[in-house]
Amino acid sequence: MDLKWFRVPKDIVFGKGTLEYLSTLKGKKAILVTGGRSMKRFGFLDQAKAYLEKAGMEVTIFDGVEPNPSVETVEKGAKAMQDFEPDWIVAIGGGSALDAAKIMWAFYEYPELKFEDIIEPGSMPTLRKKAKFVAIPSTSGTASEITAFSVITDTKAHIKYPIVSYEITPDVAILDPELPAKMPPHITANTGMDVLAHAIEAWVSTTASNYTDALALRAIQLVFEHLPIAVANGEDLDAREAMHDASTLAGMAFTNASLGLVHSLAHKIGGEFGVTHGLANAILMPYIIQYNRKATDKVAELEKILGINDLAAAVKELNKKVNVPLRFKDVTEVEMDEKKFEEVLERMSKNAFDDPCTLTNPRQSSAEDVAKIYKAAFYGEDINW
Ligand code: FE
């Protein structure tokens, strides 16, 4: 049996002002989980609380989830849930808040569960015995609102754990473009290019299907059309809505089709230099498109559908429009020292090759190929081998 499946949340609520959907939920108690201060500062946290209270629920807030959520934060949140006993968990904010809340949920449902017990894919027990989960993203990028993934950091051991289970796919995703409208231009650009990387990698993935292709294609079209507008004018709610939809569409595609070398290489260069995830993806994408097109017809197929001649060149053009550098050498947000790059290259390439995302890349690669791709993207040299 060649069993394949496609799973996404039951409800996706989208459009301007849809935060109000919270007032229609049925339940007794809700806990809001969020990150630093931005959701509070922009008033969204208070709005969410008011809508849940309107639904007749008692509401509490767990805030302060850090950018790379730690095991300790997850345990603290789970403890707060065990004390409060909510039947709804409502995560609102960036990917980190959503990721952390997913695992708090697992530990709330199973207080005896240990972190080590859920690292193995498929080891997550059945959730939803105590609560259901709503995800409300404030960025258009990670698509945590739709995915079966969560990344939690063991800060003591300096290890990031990707947790993978369809159990932690949210029950409801609420996509209100008012939230990402507050993102500054450079974050809009980086997260938007992450969306494009999700969609293009899902499109060429060796596990792509008709289901994921349809979603990935629409996401790609939306990003090319609307990202430059969202970057130039953050308050353009139509562009924001299109990008928010694109993020979730791409998320539905990659949570089912997985990713490829762009993410493998971005993960590891991010680990070595601290370069932002979306920015690393944006820079790597044109080079890996050039590399992959030798092994798949899907790139040419995409070019035909989009009516363009050269996808790699089109992505570079988009990078220019949203002020993203075309090679790592020109990155300014962190120091990307050439000497250090040459020093870590071999180790970083081996680690990137071993990343799980490499498995579904359309071209069979090697640690040597990965090193050559890194070099091309560092110095800005086209790949035609
Ligand atoms: Fe990503």
Number of helices: 13
User: What is the typical, i.e. mean, pLDDT?
Assistant: 95
Distance between the termini: 37 Å
Small molecules bound in the structure, each named once: fe (iii) ion
Overall helicity: 40-55%
Annotated CATH topology of the largest domain: Dehydroquinate synthase-like, alpha domain
CATH class of the largest domain: Mainly Alpha
Spatial order of strands in the largest sheet: 1-8-5-4-2-3
CATH architecture of the largest domain: Up-down Bundle
Give the DSSP E fraction (strand runs of 2 or more residues).
5-15%
The tally of structural domains comes to 2
Extract low-pLDDT stretches.
none
Number of strands: 8
| SSE pattern | EEHHEHEHEEEEHHHHHHHHH
**What general outline do the C-alpha atoms trace?**
globular
CATH superfamily of the largest domain: Dehydroquinate synthase-like - alpha domain
Radius of gyration, whole Å: 20 Å
Query: Structural class, please?
Result: alpha/beta
Query: What kind of sheet is the major sheet?
Result: 6 strands, parallel
Task: Offer a concise description of the structure.
The protein has 385 residues and is of the alpha/beta class. The chain is 48% helix and 11% strand. The chain has two domains: 11-180, Rossmann fold (3-Layer(aba) Sandwich), CATH 3.40.50; 183-379, Dehydroquinate synthase-like, alpha domain.
